[in-house]
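Q: Two folds, back to back.
A: First:
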Amino acid sequence: MSVFALDSNIISFYLRGNTAVIANIEKAINDGNSIFIPPLVYYEVKRGLMLINATKKMKEFDALCELFPVGELDNYLLDESINIYVQERKAGRNIEDADIFIATFCIHNNYILVTDNIKHFKYINNLHVINWAN
């Protein structure tokens, strides 16, 4: 059994009815896998929907969050995120904070990150990434 964590872009595709994403989510569930929503993804998606007052999509997102638990961000994950940030900056790479938090959440919990932005995460060690958008 695998555990998948959905990135913001995958949830956006889902909310827009992307058939590949929907089919992959259904397959994962039917195969007995689990799906989580990282806490920073919850923040990114919800703030975007609230900003544009997308009430229908907000209800769909809330329903999705009832199906798939939203993870928690604690001090350990924050400290590990800091370590990744420092490591990447010293290597001359600038990775967005949200991407670092999402990656750390997945690494710590041994989850597979589902994203359409694989290149954003390619330098982060010990992170397993897959794309369900195509």
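A: Second:
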Amino acid sequence: MKDIFNLFFPKVCEACNSLLRDNEDTICTYCRHDLPVTNFHFNNADTVKKVLYGRVRLELATALFYFSKKGIVQQLIHNLKYRGHENIGTVLGKWLGNELAVCKAYETIDVVVPVPLHKKRLRKRGYNQVTRFGKEIAKALNVAYEDKVLQRVEPSQTQVFKNRLLRSSSVDSIFIVENMALLKHKHILLVDDIITTGATVEACSNVLQTIDGIKISLATMAIAE
């Protein structure tokens, strides 16, 4: 029955579209070895922090992959965000979560918080692309996952063709925090799909920093090269 099912509904790699073998899941072995991992969290690299230097104070910051246009990471994130392939978020969350779990610096994380979607975007897409990613990281770190505090109150617009100044102004003041007591004196790990200029993370951090005693760290699926 499995062979018949695969005949009509073949499983393909989310990065290269090649057929998956029985022992492969979501991403083929070749692509797993070819993915441009950063290893920032292992090397104590400040690459992500430099994107936000002078704008956001981060305790820790990492990204799983480097992102380049027309690369396999772009294909993965595109399939996750626009084709409903939420399993990608699960796989990437387990991948990064397992790595962070063996990094002593991340033992101080208390809670994982996702960058939220606006309610209209959430209804249209049906899911937040970072939900499964964040939940798997929280599970690996054995901490809470909290998506009820940080809220987006204005819908986002495409950022692709905007420069850094315009991107920053377009996301300023579009987030609010509710139920602040849930994050009071907590070290949170903010999670998102990709960091480019850092405007969205900056906007989120600006409102999160109004919570007493909060510390903010960041983990993303990818960082733009």
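Q: And?
A: Residues 1-34 form one domain.
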